[in-house]
Amino acid sequence: MIRRLLPIAPLLLALACGSSEPSPSPSPTATPDPCASAPSRYGVAVTDWWIPACSLAQDIYNDPKEALGAPNAGGRGPDQYTGMVSLGFGGHVTLDFGGCISDAAGPDLRVFQTVSSEAVSVYVSLYPDGPFTLVEGLKECGEPYHGIQHSCEFDVASVGVTRFRYVRVEDGELFPCPGGTVTEGADLDAVEALGVATAGTNHGTNR
Predict the structure, then answer these.
(1) Core vs surface per residue 1-22: b (16+ CB within 10 A) or e
(2) What is the CATH number of domain 52-198?
(3) pTM
(4) What is the pLDDT along the chain (207 residues), one digit of tens a residue?
(5) Alpha carbon of 99 to those of 36, 131, 144: distances in Å?
């Protein structure tokens, strides 16, 4: 009688490799809750920024961290200012407020813009990478504050937003660079969350 022999190579391979059962899939990483902590009244960290190279080449106020904390811009032109960042042609800075800000009655954000009453566009999001919602674009920051500082306000309810944590301020002057100045674009001093208690103001300061 002829007996059929099992191939030896596959058996040896199975013994060497052990069980062929699939490994368990890794558990998905949970998305952190952006509202787990209390927010500050002013930005506490810069999560993203961009200034075009043609503006960076001649602007002398290029530190995005100057947008953190309470408004503190001062000095005089053209090259003796302090406490601000020039956004350049279409540039932006995104600030983290440390926790979620809920829509309240009336305006929710005040943007402090220095030197002159240049326009800005403001976006908000729950997450640092977006999606970002445009609250209002190309709005002139012309309300007098004091000295060289001006401000403008934004109401997130106007676009259906109820909560946000991150605020992006973008140059709305849109004057093509190079423009012959050392303060190209809107000059951002600070962003204030109007509905947040004053106790949250000690989380960030301009630098």
Answers:
(1) eeeeeeeeeeeeeeeeeeeeee
(2) 2.60.120
(3) 0.82
(4) 445 544 544 444 444 445 555 666 666 667 789 999 999 999 999 999 999 999 999 999 999 999 999 999 999 888 899 999 999 999 999 999 999 999 999 999 999 999 888 999 999 999 999 999 999 999 999 888 777 889 999 999 999 999 999 999 999 999 998 888 999 999 999 999 999 986 544 434 444
(5) 7, 17, 29
